[in-house]
Amino acid sequence: MLLKFAYQDFIDDRTFKNTTAVNIQNYKVLLGGFIDFCHENSILNVEEIQSNHVKRYLSQCQSNGNSANTVNSKLQRIRAFLNYMVEEGMVKENVALKVKRQKADVKINVFSDEQIHQMLGYYRSLRRREDSYFAYRGYMLIVTFLGTGIRRTEVINLKWSDVDMDNLTISVYGKRRKKEIVFITEKLAKELSTYNLFCKRRFRTLSDYVFVNRDNTQMTQNSIMLLFQNLQRKMNFSDVRVSPHTFRHTFCHRLAMSGMSAFAIQKMMRHENIAVTMRYVAMWGNELKEQNDKYNPLNKLDI
């Protein structure tokens, strides 16, 4: 089967299976590069793909500056594509399974208190000078991400009808579009209530969505990406990337450092597998040791 038709068939299959638009775009970007590589090297049929082609492509990506995590993400998409080809009977085996994942750094950077105050201070200052929706929305996005650990797509799709101020919860559609309940604090509920009043005054009609663009339409993946790119330039942090996922990591980090059990962290983060949670806990093991050395009850006992 011609590779270009196999690729399109795979994308159509994922679309038919109601894969999110974000994941479809990820397939087009991360898998599309491999398809282009094959065409450039005269590999025109899907049956012609060999494991050494996958290795050569990933090595090229690495030479172009791709991190180990990015290379592994591309390998994951190639494997998914070839798995589909096996299921459809187009190839006999998934040759990408012979290619090993790269060892990636497990360190994940999180925001410090100072950095969080700096970002919030920027939007507070902007609000005082301009009283703009842009400033208030940026402030509320940070507070919401930091107070819930929800994902970028979840915050984009968050509606006012999903916010339960009385029971202090919000409903989100997480991975696999599964409806999940996220707890919020009274502090965040008050912030959201005040923001709701601001939006009602700002726009003639309150949008169904909590976070909107200047024209009162739902935010898109691109608009939220541009917002955080702008914030990254303003803050100029050298040691951490300003992104929604960094706030999610920070939320998880603070839970771990507070002494919360791994089981509770799993529920708060909504990880499907506790092994994912344990990787985070293990990642911050040195900090936990420092906290233990500092606060261990034996330190204050005369024994």
From TrEMBL:
Pfam families: Phage_int_SAM_5, Phage_integrase. InterPro entries: CB (IPR044068), DNA_brk_join_enz (IPR011010), Integrase-like_cat_sf (IPR013762), Integrase_catalytic (IPR002104), Integrase_recombinase_N (IPR010998), SAM-like_dom (IPR025269), Tyrosine_recombinase_XerCD (IPR050090). It comes from the Bacteria. Residues 106-293 form the Tyr recombinase domain. Keywords: DNA recombination, DNA-binding. The keyword DNA-binding applies. Residues 1-86 form the Core-binding (CB) domain. Belongs to the 'phage' integrase family. This is Tyrosine-type recombinase/integrase. It comes from Fictibacillus iocasae. The lineage of its organism: Bacteria, Bacillati, Bacillota, Bacilli, Bacillales.
